[in-house]
Amino acid sequence: MKTIIIYFAFLISSFAIGSMEAQETTTDKEEHTTDSIARVQEIKERKIKIATEEEKAKLKKEIEYINKSLENGWCDEEEAEKRKKEAAKLAAENIKNRIVIITNQVDMDERNRHDGKYLELKLTDGRLGLGIEESDDNKRSQKRTTNDLVLAFGFNNALESGQSINNSGFKLAGSRFFEIGWAWTTRVFENTNWLRMKYGLSFQLNGLKPTDNRYFVQDGDVTRLEEFEYDLDKSKFRMDNLVVPIHFEIGPSSRGETNGYRTFSTDDQIKIGFGGYAGFNIGERQKLKFNDGDDQKIKDKSSFNTNEFVYGLSAYLSFGGTALYAKYDLNPIFASPNTELNNFSLGLRFDVD
């Protein structure tokens, strides 16, 4: 059952993320349609101007050579005039032909662009050639969505309603959590970056170490802490969760402009994220180490009556890529009729670009 749940969670997450990126891509294409038409026309005009100036420069050199030939007596005036007319006609034909080539070349480039690169037909100084070029759109456009690796770790614990941390029943320093995942960050608004949505998929490991030589015992539908008959060298209970976290992130951005497009950077900026997560408990285990005359190790992978569906609230305060991170499970660790015990964590979070 839990294997099916894992596959289902991956499928839903991938579909949701893919849909959001597809919607963003469609929107970006619509936004840049007008700009692309203007850009194509600008490229044509620029290349035609360059080609025309090159042909005029060659015609000027040819006229200067003909005049020098006339001065040196290498040809008469009639021959010189004839050669000038032929040179002018050749230049005009070259310009006309190059305009056609440039127009077709730019249109072809626009049709055949792929992954920001395209095959360009080049005509320089009368020589025709092919080359790989990067499209202007690829150089100028800024991604609205970025992604990064998320790592988090720190202290973990669990409390009953009205219970304080000082008498939680679990070791403060010994109980820890670890989280690893992948997150996407999308700018909510097109022309400002003060609000971002951060979403992804994370694997959480929440560990609890009971105090007073105790361990968890499953008795039917009831799970409780009991004292172990031998001195425990280690008593650790761990829950593994696969969750989809979603946060709204606010904070300033440094702004810039590259090739006419706005750019935003949150490097070395304060960021505040608040939101939550939901997913599935995909496994739990208890490890015991003790000595009953011989060193013993027990690994118990019973269900312990834990809730299969997990959800909670989380928040972080970040500067650059490092954040103070907190999360709280709204669902009890153990299903009814057990005592409601809610897991919470406090630690550091790193967003690794």
UniProtKB/TrEMBL annotation:
The keyword Signal applies. Keywords: Signal. It comes from the Bacteria. This is Outer membrane protein beta-barrel domain-containing protein. Residues 1-22 form the signal peptide.
